[in-house]
Write a structure and sequence with these properties.
An eight-stranded parallel β-barrel has the order 1-2-3-4-5-6-7-8. The protein is 29% helix and 21% strand. The chain is globular, with a radius of gyration of 16 Å. The protein has helices at residues 12-21, 41-48, 66-74, 88-92, 111-114, 161-167, 189-206, and strands at 3-7, 25-29, 56-62, 79-83, 98-103, 119-125, 149-152, 172-175. The protein contains seven helices and eight strands, in the order βαβαβαβαβαββαβα. The protein has 207 residues and is an alpha/beta fold.
């Protein structure tokens, strides 16, 4: 079953929609003021309290320090998604499981992460994460199978999600800007529902 992650959650109504649609992951951007989706740990904790226990919570961070990671773990997040450059050894010392964000060109480097049990999966994104821009999905067709979860991100939306699934070999997908309102202020619940519906229908067609 294709895993679905909706990232950049900032509002209560978005949590309600995620609970109703039964997605697999909810992502919260923290410690990165450059992002319009950035929220405080306190705000994230308020939203976490409303999230279904069946949905895994993901703290999305760029080059976090150890203190930030400890606070995220204490707040009850299930996973942390880390962007930036960190050593394999340091990633293994993080107090909660990790989703390592990678550019598609870095798939050749997967071997150095494979033996790290704390890294539970990879998020393949565009060159500029959060830009809403897709990359050439064919580049992931030869992605080696692994016990770790592989997620496709970057410009995914209801209009292109089926093409993305047919063009790649991943375990799941990650959407943010592609399911936002036209004015860019928060998520569009109808787009999220359509995104999820199309994925589930595609799965039924190929099963």
């Amino acid at each position: 079953m294709i895993k679905i992650k909706i990232c950049g959650i900032t509002q209560e109504r978005e949590i309600t929609c995620l609970n109703e649609t039964g997605v697999d992951y909810a992502g919260f951007v923290m410690g990165y003021p450059k992002s319009k989706r950035n929220i405080s740990l306190e705000r994230a904790s308020q939203l976490l309290a409303l999230l279904s226990p069946d949905i895994r919570s993901v703290a999305v961070m760029v080059n976090p320090d150890r203190e930030q990671l400890i606070k995220v773990a204490q707040a009850g997040f299930d996973l942390v998604q880390i962007h930036g450059n960190q050593s394999d050894g340091w990633l293994g010392e993080i107090p909660i499981p990790v989703l390592k964000a990678l550019q598609v060109s870095e798939q050749k480097d997967l071997s150095k992460y494979e033996t790290n049990e704390n890294i539970r999966g990879y998020v393949f994104d565009a060159q500029v994460p959060g830009s809403g821009k897709a990359f050439d999905w064919d580049l992931l067709k030869a992605l080696p199978r692994t016990e770790k979860t592989t997620l496709l991100a970057g410009g995914l939306n209801p209009e292109n999600i089926v093409e993305a699934l047919e063009s790649t070999n991943v375990d799941g997908v990650d959407a943010s800007s592609g399911v936002e309102r036209e004015n860019g202020c928060g998520k569009d619940e109808d787009k999220i529902r359509e995104f999820v519906r199309l994925i589930r229908e595609w799965e039924e067609g190929v099963s």
